[in-house]
Amino acid sequence: MGVEFYFPTVAAPSVQWIPLKQPEYPAQEPVDYPGQLIAETASGRIYVQDKGQRAERFILTFDRISQADRNNALTLFNTVKKAANTFEYLDRDQNLHTVRWLNGFDFQLVILDRWSGSIELLKENA
């Protein structure tokens, strides 16, 4: 199965992107606690202020996708305005996630009409 992107939802999309060429495998899905502030005193004692929210990310790397796929990705990026709006991401296992686009749109032309780049998505906490 492949990945799919829908804005605002899979049930009623106004913009969708179903890549013809799927992202590279293995997919990266790091988990982090970005709400932690960590500081160390001069004596070496560690202090942590923790908001307690866990954040899941999805990093999808696309290699040599077509001009049409790149244009569809750019349309989605411009529609969600990077992280301003959430959208739905259907992963390889057909699990649906509400996400935000974190990184800039950085697809580079690597060969005639073929583009490579990555997308970093942050899963919204329920």
What's this, in brief?
The chain has 126 residues and is mainly beta. It has one helix at residues 67-80, and strands at residues 4-8, 13-17, 31-32, 36-40, 46-50, 55-66, 87-90, 96-101, 108-111, 114-123.
Kindly state the mean pLDDT as a whole number?
Answer: 89
Distance between the termini: 25 Å
Discrete helix count: 1
Considering DSSP H and I runs of 4 or more, what fraction of the residues is helical? 10-25%
Helix and strand composition category: mainly beta
Shape: globular
Radius of gyration: 17 Å
Strand content is over 45%
| SSE succession | EEEEEEHEEEE
Q: Catalogue the unreliable spans.
A: none
How many domains? 1
- Could you tell me the number of beta strands? 10
Characterize the main sheet.
8 strands, antiparallel
List the main descriptive attributes of the protein structure presented here.
126 residues, mainly beta, eight-stranded antiparallel beta sheet, two-stranded antiparallel ribbon, 1 helix, 10 strands
Task: Provide a descriptive summary of the structure in words.
The protein has one helix at residues 67-80; strands at 4-8, 13-17, 31-32, 36-40, 46-50, 55-66, 87-90, 96-101, 108-111, 114-123. It has 126 residues and is mostly beta strands. Strands 1, 2, 3, 6, 7, 8, 9 and 10 form an 8-stranded antiparallel β-sheet that branches. A two-stranded antiparallel sheet has the order 4-5. The protein is globular.
Present the secondary structure layout.
Elements: E1 4-8, E2 13-17, E3 31-32, E4 36-40, E5 46-50, E6 55-66, H1 67-80, E7 87-90, E8 96-101, E9 108-111, E10 114-123
Antiparallel strand pairs: 1-2, 1-7, 3-6, 4-5, 6-10, 7-8, 8-10, 9-10
